[in-house]
Amino acid sequence: MIGIPWNEATIAGAFLGQKIAMNEFVAFANMGGVEMSARSTAIMTIALCGFANIGSVAWCVAP
Protein backbone atom coordinates (compact mmCIF):
# COMPACT_ATOMS: atom_id res chain seq x y z
CA MET A 1 0.00 0.00 0.00
CA ILE A 2 2.86 2.41 0.67
CA GLY A 3 5.15 0.99 -2.01
CA ILE A 4 7.02 -1.72 -0.11
CA PRO A 5 7.54 -4.93 -2.12
CA TRP A 6 5.60 -7.95 -0.82
CA ASN A 7 8.76 -9.83 0.14
CA GLU A 8 9.66 -7.01 2.58
CA ALA A 9 6.12 -6.19 3.75
CA THR A 10 6.35 -8.27 6.93
CA ILE A 11 9.51 -6.50 8.03
CA ALA A 12 8.07 -3.07 7.19
CA GLY A 13 4.86 -3.89 9.06
CA ALA A 14 6.85 -4.85 12.13
CA PHE A 15 8.63 -1.49 12.10
CA LEU A 16 5.35 0.41 11.71
CA GLY A 17 3.91 -1.59 14.60
CA GLN A 18 6.91 -0.74 16.77
CA LYS A 19 6.50 2.93 15.89
CA ILE A 20 2.82 2.97 16.84
CA ALA A 21 3.12 0.83 19.99
CA MET A 22 6.38 2.31 21.30
CA ASN A 23 7.94 5.18 19.33
CA GLU A 24 9.91 5.95 16.19
CA PHE A 25 13.27 5.80 17.97
CA VAL A 26 12.81 2.11 18.79
CA ALA A 27 11.79 1.35 15.21
CA PHE A 28 14.73 3.30 13.77
CA ALA A 29 17.16 1.51 16.09
CA ASN A 30 15.83 -1.90 15.04
CA MET A 31 15.77 -0.95 11.36
CA GLY A 32 19.54 -0.46 11.36
CA GLY A 33 20.35 -4.16 11.48
CA VAL A 34 17.91 -5.33 8.79
CA GLU A 35 18.72 -5.78 5.09
CA MET A 36 16.13 -4.11 2.87
CA SER A 37 16.29 -2.61 -0.60
CA ALA A 38 17.28 1.04 -0.89
CA ARG A 39 13.75 1.92 -2.02
CA SER A 40 12.15 0.19 0.98
CA THR A 41 14.62 1.83 3.34
CA ALA A 42 13.75 5.25 1.93
CA ILE A 43 10.00 4.60 2.20
CA MET A 44 10.31 3.32 5.77
CA THR A 45 12.48 6.28 6.78
CA ILE A 46 9.72 8.67 5.71
CA ALA A 47 6.97 6.47 7.20
CA LEU A 48 8.67 6.31 10.60
CA CYS A 49 9.12 10.08 10.88
CA GLY A 50 6.39 11.92 12.74
CA PHE A 51 4.35 11.93 15.90
CA ALA A 52 1.74 9.23 15.37
CA ASN A 53 2.23 6.87 18.29
CA ILE A 54 0.33 6.30 21.52
CA GLY A 55 2.62 8.41 23.70
CA SER A 56 2.61 11.37 21.31
CA VAL A 57 -1.15 11.33 20.90
CA ALA A 58 -1.55 11.34 24.69
CA TRP A 59 0.89 14.23 24.91
CA CYS A 60 -1.08 16.24 22.34
CA VAL A 61 -4.46 15.58 24.00
CA ALA A 62 -3.38 16.22 27.60
CA PRO A 63 -4.46 19.60 28.97
TrEMBL record:
Q: Which GO terms describe its molecular function?
A: nucleoside transmembrane transporter activity; symporter activity
Spans traversing the lipid bilayer? 41-62
Q: Give the keywords, sorted.
A: Membrane, Transmembrane, Transmembrane helix
List residues of the Concentrative nucleoside transporter C-terminal domain.
1-61
The answer to whether UniProt assigns keyword Membrane to this entry is yes
Recorded hits in InterPro entries, A to Z, give:
C_nuclsd_transpt, CNT_C_dom
One Pfam family linked to the record: Nucleos_tra2_C
Recorded GO CC terms: plasma membrane
Q: Does the keyword section mention Membrane?
A: yes
The protein's name is: Nucleoside permease NupC
